[in-house]
Amino acid sequence: MKLSEKQLAVISKTVLEVLEQEKEREKKRKHDRRLRNVKLLLKNYRAFATHVSDIKLEINELNKKLELDELDTDEFAIKSIMKSKQLTLAMIKYINKTLEVYKLICEKSNDVESFRRYQVVHDLYIGETKKTALEIAERQSVHPRTIYKDVNKACETLVVLMFGVDGIKFD
After folding, report:
1. Which of 99, 114, 125, 162 could crosslink 109 through cysteines, CB 3.0-4.6 Å?
2. How much is the pLDDT for 69?
3. In the prediction, which pLDDT does 95 show?
4. pLDDT-based confidence at residue 67 (cuts at 50, 70, 90)
5. In 10 A of CB 150, how many CB atoms?
6. Phi, psi (deg, nearest 5) at residue 143
């Protein structure tokens, strides 16, 4: 069976459309994954911060013990633990810098809603005392649903600040 030129053109056009649709879906998945990752980082921020509070001391102690061969365990496991601790420390520093930039952007915007979004993120995820959405809503004099909308909007901006142009969702 031989296909006509018209049939080949229709097939080619259909294949190109399907490929384009798949490309768009992949872009959306990447953006959604980055957005989810930012939210996960925020939700786990306090745990990370607690974990890294004396990480430098722990890393130095592990290094000294490795140098003196005082550890009876597998050296590879110790190095893996050290690498994980260093990565967590680097991630916390990066998150802190990103949040500082976000705070500056919100302050300079002279937009009440923008600054409220920063405060909401800070109170929910970053501040020493965790506050509930209801507590924050009462303090901000907004509906509790607004708090979750603020978090989503803030995370959209944080995605761009953390991932650069890869964090932008092009329509």
Report:
1. 114
2. 60
3. 93
4. low
5. 24
6. -70, 145
